[in-house]
Structures are given as C-alpha cells and as structure tokens.
Amino acid sequence: MNSPRIKNALRGLTLVCLFYTADLNLSGCSEPSVPESPELSPDQAPSAAASYITIIAAGDNLVHDIIYNAARVNDPGEEEQFNFDPCYEHIKPIVEKADLAFVNQETVLGGRQFGHSGYPVFNTPQDAGLALVNAGFDVVNHASNHTMDRGEGAVFATMDFWDTHRETVYLGIFRTEEQRKTERRIIEKNGVRAGFLSYTYGLNGFTLPGDKPWLVGMIDRETMRWEINELRPLCDLLVVSMHWGNEFRHDVSESQKELALFLAELKVDLVIGHHPHVTQPVEVLSRPDGGKLTVYYSLGDLLSHTQSDWTPDTITGALAFIRVKKTADACAVDIAGVIPTVCHYGGERRSPFTVYPLWDYTDELAEKHYKNKMTLKYLEDTARQIFGVRVMSREQFDRYAR
C-alpha cells in the first residue's frame, strides 16, 4: 500500500551452479486456458509421456494493525503472541493441494525488537509468517514497496526468520551481493525445475543502503535482463514476481504492459503480479521464440484491511491456479485459472479476519461484513468481469488439481 506521507518524506530449494546450458524449444505452445467442458481437451488431458506440476499463487498478504490485534492471543502485559492460522483455514485445503504455493508477503517480519506496526510503516508479527507456512505456502515474496519500512535491520531479521523455516523459499531480498549473483531460487517437483525471480517498482520513498544496493530486487531492466538470462537456461519454467501497477485500478497500466512485453522477449513463462490491492486481468502473450508468457497482472489482496473510497473490491482477491506440462521437448503453462477469494471481517471490535474462496461465501456472510453494502452477486459479477472464463468452479479445481 502506497503512503503519500512516506513517499514524500527449503522445500526443494536448489542452489545451482552456472554450468547447465540446456535450452528448451517452446515453439507451437497452445494458449493456456480453463476448459469449460467436463472433459479435458487432448492437449490438456494428462499424458504418461509428460510431467506436471500445479501452482497456487496469492496476492498481497497485507497485515494491518487491526488484523494482528484481532489475532492476538496473549493477555495485556504479557509477551505478544498471535495466532493467524484461522485467517487461512478456508483456503488451506486449496493451497495444500498445489505442488508449489506462492504468496506476496507485502510487509517485513522483523520481529518484536522493531515494534509491531501497521499503516503506513509496517512491521508484521512473525507469527503471521508461521501461519503462511502452516497454510501450505512455500514460496514467499518480499520485494514490495514496504520492504524498507523499518530499515535494513528488519529486512535481515526477516531473512533470519525464514532461515528457521528451510522448507520455505523467500524471494526478493538478499544477504550479500555474492548471494544474489550466484544463488538461484529453483525448486524441482515431479521432474520440473521452476525458477523464481522477484522485483518491485519502488520503496515508498525509502532508499536502499548505499553499501547494499543489491538488498532488494528492484525493477531495473538492465539488472533484470542479466538475472533472467542467467536463470533461464537452468530451469524448465521461469516465474517472475512483479510488484507493479496503479493502486485501486482494475485496468492494466501502460508500464505494466511494456514490462510484460520485455519479460516475454526474455522467455519468461509466468508473471505473478501484485500491488494494486484490486484484481486485474490475465493475459497470454506470444513470445518471440514461439512460446507463451502467462501474465496475472494483479491478484489483489489476500488478507488486508485496506481502506479506500467505498468499494468492496479491496476485499476481493484471487488465487491463481496454474498447471504446468513438461514433455521431452517443451515445458509450458497449459491451464491458467483463477479462484476468487473474499477477505471477511465484521464491524465489531477485534472481529476475526478470514479468507474464503468465493465458492464458499454466502449472502449471509456478506450481510455481516464490515463493508455491508456489497452482495454475493456483486462479488461474483466482479470476478467474472475481470477474469471471464478463467474463473474456476470447485468442481473444475477438484478435477485439475493433483
């Protein structure tokens, strides 16, 4: 979330050497879609000659102070403790089914020593990160406009936290320049090597330390070109996380479109976008090499208490559902769907925050929501307007999920 005040003032992780030089011929890839019929098309039906992985990706996990206060479980005067597990209990069955599950952790997890805080300068309790692990997320992005909210010390403390959870791969922040240049975030599942990179458009007016310009992944085309070209030969599927776009806008900016074309030229397979706090469309771009780039421009907020001019759109997000198919001579996204979500909370003090898949949400719940002017129909219509036929039913998810 952009603050005008600030703006103005290891599960399967492999650290890879750079000797692997195989390239993939992706010519002739079909456009990823979600089949509307009960039966998969011949191109989408599982084949014994292919390997598959499924990916779930979530947008902004943006923990305002009202959210962590609602999750507080200690008595006054005691050491702060929080339980965020209920926030994700309704989406956990979805997340756990994926081979890989990505989330954008919008804010740093610096620990108590930096003081827990919400908007406009965030430091989120580390118990929130633990809840993401418990929910099944194993790829966590930290390159956002809030990364430097509490300075470099909180960034290093965030990495310290994730180092105690080796099954989780974190993106977008780095301990050393050497680490950034030589270590590769590659996760291998079912014989498919998925490589990850991450970049943010800015830091809300904060700057990187003069002696650590490599600390956070920033959108810089020269750096991005070098890093993508280094990673591309080492993986079958190349995924780039992009913190970009205009806040509270469903339409895609010209900057996003230009960057997407740039990433297509570099043979990226999948872009996971976030930052606008509302959802934006999915687009499939043709790459110069004949492959396809699938772009989720914005998955909206997963968990937040974002306030804007009255709109329910800031409490509606999306989980991307992606199936990847690898054969002897190609690897590409072959199914690209969307599972809309709702962040539910009531108007009473310390009301719990819970994320629901839209298919489990009801008019009865909508009537109790803090933003009480919305309806289930509005939420469903908005999801269809943004994502069209890519919106998945529970039946479709059950059919295509591993």
List the topology elements.
Elements: H1 4-8, E1 13-14, E2 51-61, H2 65-70, H3 92-96, E3 100-105, H4 126-135, E4 139-141, H5 151-163, E5 169-171, H6 177-182, E6 185-189, E7 192-200, H7 221-231, E8 237-243, H8 254-265, E9 270-274, E10 279-286, E11 292-299, E12 301-303, E13 316-326, E14 331-344, E15 354-357, H9 363-368, H10 376-387, H11 394-400
Parallel strand pairs: 2-3, 2-12, 3-4, 4-5, 7-8, 8-9, 9-11
Antiparallel strand pairs: 1-6, 2-13, 6-7, 10-11, 13-14, 14-15
Could you describe the 3D structure shown?
The chain has one domain: Purple Acid Phosphatase, chain A, domain 2, CATH 3.60.21.10. The strands form two sheets. Strands 2, 3, 4, 5, 12, 13, 14 and 15 form an eight-stranded mixed β-sheet that branches. It has a seven-stranded mixed β-sheet with strand order 1-6-7-8-9-11-10. The chain is globular, with a radius of gyration of 20 Å. The two termini are 34 Å apart. The protein is 23% helix and 25% strand. It has eleven helices and 15 strands.
